[in-house]
Amino acid sequence: MNDEKIIELYFTRSEDAISETDKKYGGVCRSTAYNILGNHEDTEECVNDTYMKVWNVIPPQRPAKLGSFVMRIVRNLAIDIYKKRNAVKNRNGYNTVSFDEISEFLPVSENVESIADRNAVLKAVESFLQTLPRDKRIMFVRRYFYCSKYGDIAKELHTTEGNVTVTLRRIREKLRSYLEKEGIEI
Amino acid sequence: MRREELVMDILGGLDDRFIAEAMPRTGKYAVSDSAAAAAPITLVETGTEISKKDLRIYWITHAIGMAAVVALIVGAVVLLVQNWDKIAVSGSERPGVISTISEPVVTSDSTITEPDKYDPFLYYSDMDMPEPFAQPEITEFYYGGTDGWHDEFYNLWKNDFYMIDDYLQKYVGEERAMEVISGYKAEQLADNQAGNITRYRIDDTQNWYRFAMDTGLTANDVRRARQMADENWSESPASMVQEDIFVTFGSKEKIAENNKTEYCISVGEYVFSPRWLYYHTTEDYKAAGITPRMINDMLEKYKTLGLTDEAWAAFSAKLQKYADNADPFGQITDTSMPRPFPEWHDTDNAQFEFQWKTKAVGAAMDCRGRENYDEWNRMCMSIRTPYRLDDNNNVAGVIKQFGITSGEIDEYFEERNARWRESLKQAEESGNEGAIMNCRNEIFSEEEINALKSGNDAEIIALFISDYSIWLTGSNYVISPEWLYYHTAEDYAAIGIEPQMLAAKIPLFEKTFTGTDNGEDLDEKSWELFKAKLTAYAESVKITDRLSVKTDNMPVPFKPTESLWGLSDFYLMWQDKFGGDNTASYIDLGHFFPASSDIAFDIAETPYNIENSYNDLRYAELLGLSNDELGELIRKRNEIYSNNEGDMTYLDKFLYTDENIEVLLSGNRGLIAHYFLSDLAIAVGENVFSPQWLYYHTIDDYETAGITPEDVRKALPMYEKTFAGEGAAMYPNAWEAFKQKLINYAYRETYTFSLAEINSGFDTELFERSFYGKWEKDGGSSDDNGILLTYRDDMFTFENWIFPRGIAETDELYVMPYINGGVGECYIIRKDAPDALYKGWWNLASYGVGSDEKDIFIINTASDKYVIANRFENDRELHPGDEIGVWGLYKLMGNSAQSAIFSQFCLETGFEKAGGFNGSGSFTDENGVVWEIAGTKSMPLMKIYYIGGDGSHDLRLAVRYYEKTEFDSFAERNYTFPEPTEHYFILSFEKEISDGGTVCNITRSAYSLPEQDSVEVIVDDGIEEPDPTDEVTIIEDDEF
């Protein structure tokens, strides 16, 4: 079923809306949540909370892209659950993505608490992504939005895990340079 | 909050388009619109399976309410039912091949519609490549041109093909033309923006051919447009007419191949630019069907791409590494061949394309889901003519490639055979002969299945090779007609196809691919060209090139001090009069060789002919003498020699007779070569082979050269006389090695024939390779002198005291118990009826030589029933005289799982229980062997070997046979041979049958080693009579 029809189900308050959403996006929702949480129980909670939230916000909202909309919710909820489950001192990274890896594309900054403008950071990252070839862009988003494993990315893009690893490392380096060049501080 | 967490939070706000773009499209977590999503979801990490039902129950309790459960479950069930057929069928479909690749289409609202099938080559795969050019790489370009900016790197098409001629645009109407062309540009722009680097087809990019098709132009339209252009616009249209281009190239595949730039590679309909190659890995090359040879062909050309040093170093290293695996035969080399079948013929022709029997292709298992299956399958299908077992999609290739286990093979074929047997049953019920045949052909036998499980290439190929293919056993290449069609004769030679192999196939091809009117015929022109190519190769005599290289590592043949000229016997190939160094005589007669006519004698190990050796004909050619002038010169020389007052004994050999001159001037080079051949050389056609050539080449080369065993047999005595013995220059060890090689070849035919006969006749392990070996002296002391027939006792076990006793060059193999005495019984197994055992007896007390168990012989009865017997050691009860009974099975497996011959007791028990002679009973013993008597039966005449000897120190081999006399009795004849320690020989007896069906004549012949007195006797055919001086004793035995 296409997204428009699913959204229509939400608008008509049909219970089928959730089953259709799950049918279409359930797999990727669960994998993303699991990639962050590393726990099936939490994953299920997260996914169901996501559906609940979608159910509650549509209507009145009518997302242009239901998939992205759902994914953003599930990802954010997963990260919230992650934070709740883990004390600050124990947090070294998500199930599949370590903080060390993330820190590789962060600009060198003396002031770790400084962040001028979240929106500016986002725009800078999006601008950077625009400069990438499509396949590299997909790799980045798959890794740092969907928190996908290297192997899964490689399989889908028909390349090797090694290639994904190397490519992402280069992208991280480039992104850090780009952000520094743009004067972004995080 | 850590910075890392913060940035991850921020990334959660990425624009929808990034999230949508990266959403998984394949794999287990892919976004799915299909009904397949109704299948249980598996979380692979833990193996936990969560069904839809579970989820729905969860939601009920947490969010929505019980009513939804029913609706959702019902919905899921309905979906499942609605799609059940698809789900059930999908598993049995033949492996799919991506034949159409759809690119993502960027629509106006920037949403991306994903292709039905994922293009595996869309993105970069080689991330390690540096920037190709010093300048930034352009990101927007057209596939037909980049305005001169590294065109070779980017372009797909030749300019004439890419550009849409103005006259065509005008013909279509400029508005319509612009609309279509704008669409092409938009596609290209979207492609550029997406950063795609993929392969393209004619239908994926701008080109005039696509334009014509998209605007519905017919061939006539194009023709008219061109005509109008000629008349009105004073332009010079370059494009071919749509119809013409199809006629010329036959298919889009060919059109693409002929219109891509010289820097691009085409595989099927797809064209790959250097840019694609640059940014993709060699794994992708392979998966895309790009062969190492294709890359190899580009290496030199790509040097001019203008890449930076760093880029070229990386690119060339990648290309070279791939090209190093170049398979020289995997690509079409004969591009002059047209499309083989008529244009309307769009179906595969299995006989033409496949190397294998169709069932071996049809049964290629579906291994979808196994790692790399898709890539492998794509590669198999993209190679036009794969030619080795592992190279293409046949059942054995799949098994090997994906490690299918024996158990899986059994399971697969059990199911498959059951299916085809069911189809066969239906076909038989309908009486459809064609269908019956097809079904039978699809059922795999136990032998075939076992071969597949064995993994033995040779065994598998032997069973599954198509009748139309050629198997090169050395390399296990299997060559299809299609490969032959698309490759040059040079490739034929390079891959190792012998001309005679093709000669054997031409009639079959002609019968199959022409004049059948069943839609499978090659196009008339195609066949004409194909046949001409095959025939030319089959008749080629260029084997001399391959035979000019020394192939046998022989010992030094002569003493080093021997001068070259002293060895003339070794290398000369002509009689002295024709091939001597007669240059002086030409000079004497006023003829001077031009400086350019270097005819220095070459003693390379090469086949000689008139052109590459000294001889009068060659001299004449070098001097430009006419036939008459040469005749005149020879006559003058004769006259001079004849008038010489010196030693005419020496000069005689230079004199030509009138007949000699007539042959010399005949112009028939084959005749001349044979006529003036030296005693020691062998001529095949116009080629002449000296002893030196024979010395330094293998017997395989002899065969390739066309030298027959008969040729060598005839030459052997002269060789021995010349190169062996006192005064001969050749070292003894060299001569021994040479002699052995010559003998091996001279008698190979008979020897191998003998072995082949034995082995081919016996398709059971009972007989297989059991009896060949050698007759050898074992130092025995009895009057039989201990000649021993060796056999492979490691292969089967004999029970009791039944022993194999020899090989008859007839349809029989005989075995018998060892019994010393006057009357014997015997058991015979016929090669042509290996499941029958014959039994007979004969009183032979007065026959035979010696009384040892090794003495055996064969006789026949006066009533034309032939039995085999041996001597009995003890008196035993006699069975009826000349009756022969036939029994059932003859073999069973012994305890050690080897074949065993029944014991005498077993035989007799079975015999009696079956009712004895003339009995009609039948019984099955504990081994499952059915015993029954088939009544009397005549046996064929025999050709036998008989071993025996007389005198413990003068061992002789005797060949005894019996010949029917004119008085309808039989005479015994012995051929005897002096002792060798190892001796191969053959006797051949042929019978002639009169009109009345009786034997009216026996022709016999025997071959022995050349150093022995050869016995070659052919009786009653008027060709040759036995030489009375031969060591042949003829014993008339009236008693017999």
Give me a quick take on this structure.
The complex is a heterodimer of chains A (186) and B (1040). With 186 residues, chain A is mainly alpha-helical.
Describe this structure in words.
- The complex is a heterodimer of chains A (about 190) and B (about 1050).
- In chain A, about 70% of the residues lie in helices and about 0% in strands.
- Chain A has nine helices and no strands.
- The mean pLDDT of chain A is about 80.
- With about 1050 residues, chain B is of the alpha+beta class.
- Chain B folds into five domains: about 25-90, no CATH class; about 105-325, no CATH class; about 355-465, no CATH class; about 555-750, no CATH class; about 750-1005, no CATH class.
- Chain B is built from 44 helices and 29 strands.
- A five-stranded antiparallel beta sheet of chain B has the order 14-15-16-17-20, with helices on one face.
- In chain B, strand 1 (about 40-45) and strand 2 (about 50) form a beta hairpin.
- The radius of gyration of chain B is 40 Å and the shape is extended.
- The interface between A and B is large, with 78 and 71 residues.
**Roughly how many Å apart are the termini of chain A?**
41 Å
Distance between the termini of chain B: 117 Å
Number of helices of chain B: 44
Cα Rg of chain A: 18 Å
What is the element string of chain A, with H for helices and E for strands? Answer: HHHHHHHHH
Helical content of chain A stands at 55-70%
Quick one: CATH superfamily of the largest domain in chain A?
Answer: RNA polymerase sigma factor, region 2, helix turn helix motif
Main pleated-sheet profile of chain B: 5 strands, antiparallel
Strand content of chain A: under 5%
Overall mean pLDDT of chain B? 62
- The side-by-side strand order for the widest beta sheet of chain B comes to 14-15-16-17-20
